[in-house]
Amino acid sequence: MTVTAIGTRYVYDFDDEAPGGREQLGGKGIGLAEMTHMGLPVPGGFTVTTEACRAQLESGSFPDGLSEELDDAVHRLELKTGKRFGSSDNPLLVSVRSGAAISMPGMMDSILDLGLSDAAAEGLVRKTGNAHFVYDSYRRLIQMYGEVVDGVDGRLFEEALSAAKQVRGVTVDTDLSADELRLLVETYKQIYTESLGRGFPQDARTQLRAAVEAVFHSWQNPRARVYRQLNDIPDTIGTAVSIVQMVFGNAGERSATGVAFSRDPGTGEKVPHGEFLFDAQGEDVVAGIRAPQPLEELEASLPEAYAEFQKAMDTLEQHYRDVQDVEFTIEHGKLYILQTRSAKRTAAAALRIALEMVEEGLISREEAVLRIEPGMLDHVLHPMIDPNAAVTVAATGIPASPGAAVGAVVFDADVAAERGKNESVILVRFDTTPDDIHGLAAAEGILTAHGGMASHAAVVARGMGKPCVAGCGALRIDESAGVCTIGGVQVREGEQLTVDGSNGRVIVGAAPLVTPTTNPDLDTILAWADRFRTLGVRANADTPVDAERARGFGAEGIGLCRTEHMFFGEERLPVVQEMILAEDETARRAALDRLLPFQQADFEAIFEAMPGLPVTIRLLDPPLHEFLPAENEATTERMRERINSLREVNPMLGTRGCRLGLQWPEIYEMQVRAIGRATKAVADRTGETPKVEIMHPLVAFAEELHRLRVLTERVMEEEAPGLEYLCGTMIELPRAALRAGEIAAYADFFSFGTNDLTQTALGLSRDDAEGKFLTGYLEQGVLEHNPFETLDQEGVGELVEIGVTRGRAVKPGLEVGICGEHGGDPQSIAFCNRVGLDYVSCSPFRVPVARLAAAQAALVEKGTSYEQAGG
Ligand code: ADP
Ligand code: MG
Ligand code: MG
Predict the structure, then answer these.
(1) pLDDT digits (tens, 9 = 90+) for 679-697
(2) Element counts in the chain: helices (H) and strands (E)
(3) Cα(560)–Cα(730) distance, integer angstroms
(4) Which residue among 107, 141, 329 has the greatest number of ligand 1 atoms within 8 angstroms of its CB, and so is best to mutate?
(5) Residue 106: CB within 6 Å of ligand 1?
(6) Annotated active-site residue in 456, 625, 696, 822
(7) 576-586, pLDDT tens digit by residue?
(8) Which residues contact residue 729 at a Cβ distance below 8 angstroms, ignoring those fewer than 6 apart?
(9) In 3D, which of 553, 561, 556 has the Cα closest to residue 537?
């Protein structure tokens, strides 16, 4: 399909009204147009639309009519500036700049000083009397044009420049004299000619057309493609091209160029923050040509330009109502703004800025809440390497779980579990498996050589809220020798190591950490969020410690308390094994009777950590063989037989969950009894009855829940007569979602167990998928997201919706929540909000994220939005 050019307008002057906004003009183009309309000092110019780029990319040729439109726009710019494009007396020079609708900083190309030629250069020298500036500009043009338009190797130019500096014995380019720059231009032209077999184009209009075309093509350069892939930016949208009258920061002493933020992007403090260079142009500041000066020195040297600059910052903030990141240039003391966009900032700065802008009346509280990216909160709440400390990074890996940790290196999970009791350890492994869980739990931080964000180590670490750097390619482990090398540095077992899971850094030795434990700004934002959200937020917590932590983060109850963890304790596991090995029911009950006090004590402690708040307790879920040792570790023949008889080919789909509870009812009976007694004990002791919700896992058939409800009611009546509680089920099998109506008849609540629901709906086991074909799927783009991290809304989500609708059709007051890991994922939380869940439940560390994401979901549904400025 080709786009017909007839009637399509491709060019808009900065002071025109363009109908298509950012999509049409790109972020840079729309920013230049808006700043022009605000009356800010922006050089004249115009933007070629993204449509033109798409037309070029589709047809492979310069869009029909664009040449004429360019000629007209250049003519208008000539009238505005009083200069002539291509003239040798008073030449108009322009920059040709890329800019897509979604910011892709530095990924595409721009060309400055376009319109210069031998004749124009001489004319400009006559007019300005500043040959230094003119030949400095000309050499820049030849290099940029050569590289961007014609693919000349940039190193050739860099080498020529270095050679010129060496001959002269100077270190910085500004120290070259006008004559030397003129000679350098000759050398550059030679390089150009030798590389291409033709001379540097002397016609300004030829230059312009070729430059526009080259900028279109820079959309397809490899780094731009990779950047789009990494950031989910569609390949089809194309870039706009802005043509801007040149203003010269390289025109001498009272000229400069710089970049600045309207507030400090590190701390959020309301003070402009930036850097600049006198007598410089374009990217010199960021490229580190010379050491740039802080903005304050501009105030001292050019107070009038600085005052104007401050005014411009104010205008921009008033208009965009956000911190801006701007490019500016000063030519002979006169300020120009060349670009503006919403500034990237640290989490701490984002919070402070949002709050202060509410105080300043710039934004509403709703907008403030919408502006904080939930994922960023991780960085506020975890320890970090002291930003003032100088550290040497030995290697970097994938930042898999945020925060920083310091500890002694260990290579084995058992060793980690042992040493971790008395000291901080960092577990360093090729990768981890579920067998390492105790080591992961005991470690302060985790470093793996293999795997990514979805690797076992990463997922577990995030769940536990501990720092993890995964996939560190520069890590080699020689476990038997008790040594590893990290980026070539040798580290022995027991030596100190620092991992920074917020950015993937690995540092040999103990880096100083600081812990931003309380952040009052965060507390304020979350308090506002709590008022906007309608979804409840609970935590998944199995222990009193977790429960207390969850309360501290603002959880409004426990959505999932897994009781199997209580079976693993040192004094308990032998009793559990005795119960499993029992010959008959009597023996089994005897063992269960001994387990009951442990469970009861655990429940009491958890109830007391959640006074007045709901606690959802899930009865035993995993298959029994998980509690037995491996067959070759069996100590008796009886044990070996039992291990054999319990073995299942596919335990995930075997005798687990309520199937277990129906086959050996005395197990669930003991658990319900422990719950009943704990409820009663806490009610008697504290005067507040715990709000208990007893949850039966893996129900597929209504009849399963029917029978278990009868059991539950009978035992609760015996142990805690008259006390109120809820009895419900997890919905984690597709059949349960489909038959939710029948199941709801026996349920006071549903909790969507979306981990298992994802596995069963997709027919894949997480352990077998992640790190294997699922990783491939994500890399090849078969899937966009890992369905265990972000709910598969179309598939699994439809089952959830069906479950909610059918359940509530039968029982309108049915309480419905979600307790899979998705309960802490912002996108999935928005889905839960939309389908009318009552609450989400997630790991304690994710609770603040969930509170914020739930508020954002509610606000977005009400139609409040927040859009970023500029590009
Ligand atoms: P990027 O998208 O990589 O930032 P830009 O198009 O913004 O590229 O331009 C590169 C550099 O050149 C920036 O520092 C910018 O401020 C500067 N620049 C662009 N156009 C002009 C101009 N007309 N006059 C002076 N400097 C300019
Ligand atoms: Mg720029
Ligand atoms: Mg489950």
Answers:
(1) 999 999 999 999 999 999 9
(2) 34, 31
(3) 10
(4) 329
(5) yes
(6) 456
(7) 999 999 988 99
(8) 658, 695, 696, 697, 699, 705, 736, 743, 746, 747, 749, 750, 751
(9) 556
